[in-house]
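Revision sheet: structure tokens.
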Amino acid sequence: MTDEKAADLRPGEKIGARGRPVPLSERERKFRKDWTKDDCTKHLREMQERDPDTFISRNFFRANSEISDATWNQFFGTFEEFRKGAGLQLSRHAHSIERHIARHASFDLIDEMSEGKRNYAGLYLKPNRHRFKTLLACSDIHDLDCDPFWRRVFIDAVERIKPDVICINGDLFDLPEFSKYNQDPRDWKPMQRVDWCRDFLRDCRIASPDSQIDLIEGNHEFRLFRHLAEQTPALKVILSELHGLDIPGLFKLHDFEVNFIGQADLKAWTEKDIRAELRRNYKVYWDSVLACHYPSRRNLRIPGFGGHHHKHECWPFHNPIYGACEFHQMGAGHCRAADFTDGEAWHLGFMGVHVDTAKRQSVFEYIQLQDHAVVGGEFYTRTKAEVMA
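Predicted:
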């Protein structure tokens, strides 16, 4: 066969007995030795063009092409590289650039959400000229998983004490749909959880109409806002029932006059970065008392309280400004029957803080709950209806 005749051949042909191009037999097409790298990629592209809606996998190619595995393998090694060579799949470098573009494009909306939630910290401040202030604080309520006895005692304490400030110190929400714990989507009930939180805020406002209510962002609220910023499938369950969802709408900030404190940047990705950002969510009351979700903020050496770990602990220390003082890690409002951690080791409780703003001195009154509790001399006992499985 002359070089001229060979040059006239198209893929899938050979020179016949009479010196003319004839189609290769099926076996010859599969195992011919003269396929070039360009022939292989051209053939793969043509297959895709003929059937643009089909993803051409290795098995599909093997069953429908004229090229044996050994033929393309000698040029590309893997079928993934074969697809990349034919331009049907991005290279590693191009795919990496594409991921980075998508990630940074998503930052635009996340930045808007981060900036937006920072604007809700001082919506409804309620200052007064009283020298002595009282603050009632709670943490880790976790919506539907709240202990009903704890809830009754706390709301009743709010009504009787009428504190200057009610501080909900993170994790009002549980929303396992948005957390790291895996949950069967058939058990999702996010709107029931949202409604529970709204009812709790409403009851706090009714119990003490003139109190300032502050809600500090915890790790569960942070996860929720990440879903809100990224419009994830879990969030669409909420969006299907609640139109125009935003932070004030979610928490009913305007209806119940609630300040939301959330300084954490939603662009944090790793668990370490998220914890570092959440440590920025704190507030200092009357230059005297620190409120923060993560108790590690006690390293600021300011008397105050944290939460997150659902256990009561106290660290006494001396500060040249505040004198002999304490930092408390509060117990939770979450029921102790938790199936995803050692709930039997948890504590139920909340905190009362009485502050002399002139001397910047604080007296902490931690209220622990078992099946009974005492708040300001009032004795409470758990009813049968409040016993949780």
